[in-house]
């Protein structure tokens, strides 16, 4: 089989635990660490630029699934099994999902083409975040209560991570929404952090967490895809496996 379920379970547990615990630690640091009044001139634009780059990379991965982590392993495996005699018809890939009924809740069809619901949510959330940051930086936003902005973002991110870790949403709409709020939540947290503290350490720690949240989401997605194939009745007759 292509999937090593024990490996995926360990990776999923690791990234989910680090992502959620890191989120809680970040909130605790903002509460108990004294605010840093001094801020370098380059600090805020650099913070926003790095976050925008992360969002753009996520958008590229969403619209070009062949760049997603894990897909190259899958496609390599498919090429290998397709080079030998098989007992079944070749499975085609729609985005980074095989054209299989077991994955129908992971995709939606628009103008005759299939798209990944989760990646579409990440793309939309990233686009909202990039536009929001640009508007905030150049024109400003009414942020009268940055702590509340941070708290809303915290709840959004926590909900997205817990959903990914604990629940299997059987709806493509649900997958779209939860991936969207994960990115929008990170954007709101970024605005809150930029207003609350000038600590370079906290800001860099937040950017590291964003990367970990992405890895947690990817690892969890791989695990769930592996679980679907593990339970599939086609067994070894399926090229995807």
Largest sheet: 2 strands, antiparallel
Helix count from the secondary structure assignment: 7
Cα-to-Cα separation, first versus last residue: 5 Å
Number of DSSP E strands: 4
> Unreliable segments (pLDDT under 50, ≥5 consecutive)?
1-5, 67-90
Strand content: under 5%
Shape designation: globular
* Mean pLDDT level: 75
Computed Rg: 20 Å
Structural class: mainly alpha
Which strand order does the major sheet show?
1-2
Explain what this protein looks like in three dimensions:
- Helix 1 (about 5-30) packs antiparallel against helix 7 (about 200-230), helix 2 runs parallel beside helix 7 (about 200-230) and helix 4 packs parallel to helix 6 (about 170-195).
- Mean pLDDT is about 75; it is low at about 1-5 and about 65-90.
- This protein has one domain.
- It has seven helices and four strands; from the N terminus they run αααββββαααα.
- The protein is globular.
- It is mostly helical and about 240 residues long.
- About 65% of the residues lie in helices and about 5% in strands.
- The longest helix has about 30 residues, at about 200-230.
- The strands form two sheets. It has a two-stranded antiparallel sheet with strand order 1-2. A two-stranded antiparallel ribbon has the order 3-4.
- The chain has helices spanning about 5-30, 45-65, 70-80, 115-140, 145-165, 170-195, 200-230; strands at about 95, 95-100, 105-110, 115.
- The chain starts with a helix and ends in an 11-residue tail after the last helix.
- A hairpin with a 2-residue loop joins strand 3 and strand 4.
């Amino acid at each position: 089989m292509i999937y090593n379920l024990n490996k995926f379970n360990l990776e999923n547990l690791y990234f989910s635990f680090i992502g959620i615990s890191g989120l809680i630690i970040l909130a605790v640091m903002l509460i108990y660490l004294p605010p840093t009044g001094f801020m370098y001139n380059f600090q805020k634009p650099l913070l926003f630029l790095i976050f925008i780059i992360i969002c753009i990379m996520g958008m590229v991965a969403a619209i070009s699934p062949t760049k997603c982590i894990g897909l190259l392993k899958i496609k390599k495996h498919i090429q290998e099994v397709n080079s030998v005699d098989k007992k079944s018809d070749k499975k085609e890939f729609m985005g980074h999902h095989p054209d299989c009924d077991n994955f129908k809740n992971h995709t939606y069809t628009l103008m005759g083409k299939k798209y990944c619901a989760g990646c579409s949510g990440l793309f939309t959330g990233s686009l909202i975040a990039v536009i929001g940051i640009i508007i905030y930086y150049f024109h400003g936003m009414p942020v009268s209560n940055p702590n509340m902005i941070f708290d809303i973002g915290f709840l959004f991110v926590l909900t997205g991570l817990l959903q990914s870790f604990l629940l299997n949403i059987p709806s493509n709409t649900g997958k779209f929404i939860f991936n969207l709020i994960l990115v929008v939540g990170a954007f709101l947290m970024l605005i809150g952090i930029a207003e609350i503290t000038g600590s370079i350490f906290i800001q860099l720690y937040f950017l590291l967490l964003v990367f970990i949240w992405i890895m947690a989401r990817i690892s969890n997605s791989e695990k769930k895809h592996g679980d679907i194939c593990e339970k599939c009745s086609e067994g070894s007759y399926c090229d995807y496996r």
